[in-house]
Sequence to fold (456 residues):
Amino acid sequence: MDEKIFEIIADEERRQREGLELIPSENYVSPQVLKAMGSVLTNKYSEGYPNFEGLDGTDARALKETTIENHRYYGGQENTDRIERLAISRARRLFHADHANVQPHSGAQANNAVYNAWLKPGDTVLGMDLGHGGHLTHGSPVTQSAKIYNFVGYGTNLETGDLDYDEIERLAKEHKPKIILVGYSAFMKVPDFDRIAAIGAQIPGCLLMADMAHVAGLIAGGVHPNPLDHGFHVMTTTTHKTLRGPRGGLILSKGVVSNPLMKVGHSIENIPTLIDRSVFPGTQGGPLMHVIAAKAVCFYEALQPEFKQYAKQVVKNAKTLANELKECGFKLIGDGTENHLILIDTIKTCGVDGKTFEKLCDRCGLTLNANAIPNDPRKRFSPSGVRLGTPAITTRGMGENEMKMIATCMNAIADFCPARNNGEWQNMEIMGKVIVELREAVRYLGKKFPTPTDRK
Ligand SMILES: Cc1ncc(COP(=O)(O)O)c(C=O)c1O
Fold:
């Protein structure tokens, strides 16, 4: 028995139970998702795909045609085929897609697979600049994809925090990208997908790709537009953020679905098959069938009416928290939020960098992360802000009252800082006492709103 690891897991359970998770890309999965992930499916190799025939978004059809020939490289797939067909079918239904590839091991793998499916080395991708909220996989020079493809970045309007659509149009006409990519890790507005689709339509051979890793749960819950309903061809996402599933990736597409073992022409219509071939064998080996089963459970849960309520509450909570923080004098990028994300300029709020503020919050049991603000003049490891969000605390059942309490705690932390004390840090003794009180208040909230695995 490996006691060490299980002791550490128990410590992590305690940390998650007693603290409040405000990192916007994290969540708490249901006991069923956890169970599927910890199942014997991890023992199975399933390279290849099930047969896609007959999938119409219903569980009944997904389960029906399992005797038809599959496209796998190993035997013993009678159960894994049913699982993957259910996962694909449910994902298609949830996101109004013609096809779903449920095999990407992560969001980064999903993005790389789409690039590999559609681009030749040297081709251009127009995506959101990292310094304005885009993701590493959208062209950071440290990534493999940035060494292969040419990424051109667009920014946000510094006053409104919104996308600058005229700038996107100008850049698209100038660079003629093969992909226009909308996606982000720190952007608080709702993109105008129609406007971007209209820009893409003017560029021959341009694939419209949305990386909705952060807001997929809001899309599934009907409180955020679905890019596939607004002219986009492909949507990638993680399954573990607002969507509340296992860690993993997912690629949804519009187009014609065919046999993934057969080569198809390079057209937007064939993008489902180009992507399948790019995921396996293009960029990955065997799928993680235990994770695919957990994704299927997550999609099932996201199709239930309660999930709509959760998604609505995530946004409501984020708006309440943002407004309360503003009332306390916090400076928010974009002056608030339209989704689950909040980005605070800590330098302007209380004169400390994001890392310092993150560490102070950590001591009180509030977990959030230091983050760059648009055009941040500071270094990556001590940026000017912190990013937080409401998915995980909403899953625990918290509402507007608790958002007010969290804002009050964060304001008490900001009160320690020099900018609020004539340039001096708050007296150490007082600070220590307040931290103990805040830790207790956070623990109280944690007890009152148990995690899904503690609820049972
Ligand atoms: C927009 C976006 N895309 C992709 C990813 C990468 O996902 P993963 O960490 O699963 O590779 C993230 C993760 O933070 C993200 O925010």
Observations:
- Residues 25, 106-108, 111, 135, 137, 183-185, 211, 213-214, 238, 249 surround pyridoxal-5'-phosphate (CB under 6 Å).
- The longest helix spans residues 305-327.
- The chain is about 45% helix and 10% strand.
- The CA atoms of residues 63 and 82 lie 6 Å apart.
